[in-house]
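Hi R.,

As promised, here are both runs. First protein below:
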Amino acid sequence: MKICCIGAGYVGGPTMAVIAQKAPNIRVTVVDLNQERIDAWNSDTLPIYEPGMEEVVKEGRGRNLFFSTNVVEEIIAADIVFVAVNTPTKTYGVGAGKAADLRFIESVARTIAEVATSDKIIVEKSTIPVKTAETIKKILAANTRGLNFQVLSNPEFLAEGTAVADLHNPDRVLIGGERNPAGEKAMQTLVDVYAHWVPRDRIITTNLWSSELSKLVANAFLAQRISSINSISALCEATDADVDEVARAIGYDSRIGPKFLKASVGFGGSCFQKDILNLVYLCESFGLPEVAAYWNAVVEMNDWQKSRFATRIVKTLFNTVAGKRIAIWGFAFKKDTNDTRESAAISVCKDLLAEMAEVVVYDPQVPASKIRSDVLGDGVTNDRLVVVDTAEAAAVGAHAVAVLTEWDEFKELDFKRIFASMPKPAFLFDGRNLLDLEKLNAIGFTTSGVGK
């Protein structure tokens, strides 16, 4: 069997690397038009950082895992074509700011219809709105060679930072297809691929539309829990309650459970906000404004939490940060990834720069060029945004430190030395509730956590 995956990003690369690792009898090729990205996948410096991924890629690369820009050639050769291209939120026209931009999905479908010379199974791996498969099927059916294509939905449920572990031991693999003999056969073919390592009882098959919608709903529910506990964090700060203690108390309820009840400066990443806004747009499109408003409130709460954190820094530093050095520890949206999409750090840095602060950023995995472009825009410079190589360097001379990513290395720092390097009073704002604030207070820091 030959598998081709179109899209060499955070979904396509890791997923195909693990399939190649676990199913050595299958030839897996990841294709992308971005030559630089493909070159990186073929090098010793992979384009994305995930714990354990380098070992998986090196095990399969050259054996049954390949990375190529020969899109047409690999589509023609493949039995199964995964589509893992980007589906960003539209920035123009109808649905701008909410709807998914499906031009890349459509382009891929048209390419497959144009170049394919045999029947194929097409697998939606990108996060897409419900009923997108209908569009793909219509485009594929318009091919002039009488070929038959089966379209399946196989959404990813990876968490960045643990993607390899999630792929090795998934909670579930969801496969949606048409409930007819051809659709059932196609689903079974994909089930057999995952069955190389995933227990059969964890592979769920549904109809196409249930599968497409399940991805959006899963992310919406997870984000809702974060926004819910973040809303309570504000109440905890107003009442001297401790949000971690509240979360622990309610998490013991088996109906609620403890996961995704960690208060923070706000959620980020490529999926949560994008998928919720997509869900909002779908609800509006189907005449369900009350449902749309409900889910939109999850995003509004997250935006408010990020803004509230920056405002708290300004108020605590005597209502002005103009000319003051503020150290930002962590820029990725979460630890163990170099992904900065929708990172809370972007919003906080922008707010502090708008208050005329000097913002000094350190992150162990995000390049300085990426930090600058995310905060300022491509080609824009600002002398008050500085990127340094260590957390200690960021803190030297800083009036305050703000922890915005929960990197483990921040717990191992010499805080006595850091305190000595800062003007007094020395403030520390823990946006991830990562550090032991009592110990930091004993050193002399004036500390603030989220919901504390």
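And here is the second one, sequence first, then its structure tokens:
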Amino acid sequence: MGKQKQVLVCGAGGFIGSHLVKRLKNEGCWIRGVDLKYPEFSKTEADEFVVGDLRNPAVCKNLIDRAFDEVYQLAADMGGAGYLFMGEHDSDVLHNSAMINLNMVDTCYKGGVKKIFYSSSACIYPEYNQMDPSNPKCSEESAYPAAPDSEYGWEKLFSERMYLSYYRNHGLTVRIARFHNIFGPEGTWKGGKEKAPAALCRKVAEAIDGGEIEIWGDGEQTRSFLYIDECLEGTRRLIDSDFIGPVNIGSEEMITINNLAKMIIDIAGKNLTIKHIKGPLGVRGRNSDNRLIKEKLGWKPTMQLRTGMEVTYKWIKKQCEEYQAKAKKEG
């Protein structure tokens, strides 16, 4: 029997991180998780969980007390369009995430970590290639000349280059993926940091049959959304491969926000109308280009969007009901 794999998951209290911990535990790994907070919706399955701030170099140094087989760096200051595109959090997003990555990459290199995965984002892609909602260009090589539409995207692109420079200059084994709109149960669904699938599920769940829900903009902006299990499968395949990346991990099933809302309304079995209002939009169109991941890993996501949305809506509907019941009891 081989030695148990030693893994560190940074951002283990977040949506993707907490799901990743569960997956790695099922694979038999020993896991240390770290985050500013514990997972919100379920108990962590990490063997050790450190509540710590990765912006502090001393915290990072204490975490890397062994030559971990794998480190997953998912920690970031992030949220949906309502958080990232309003401009009010730009300095926090840039400073916090950059400090985390500057600390972690250097500490992992000096601590002899064998392999580190960095979760970048589709937000690094140039705005000029995503103006046409019907034909966005998000192939990996199209990242340059760089022109992300948010400071979040700029920080992610900078950090990609930093991890790659540590690979070139110091031989640190890195793997980089650009995640495209990951969704599923146990993700943020209220409070301002939620993304479109969760926000729409909440609005539909809370709406009275025959009523309406609000959508930012004209709703013709396009996106693709990837279910959490597919994200984890792609991530594990990448870290086990010889390919460094960056590579897209996302769905090619592009949909307008209007049609996403209609899909959720149909899943809910409700009769609702859509009202368009002003709000932050991000790029006009975005879709994953999966040619490179198919070529390098012999795999690409295949789950239909509706399948994942059915599971996610059911979970968010339950959260809404419990939240309302608690508010009623307390009020």
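A quick note on the second one: The radius of gyration is 20 Å. Let me know what you think.

Best,
J.
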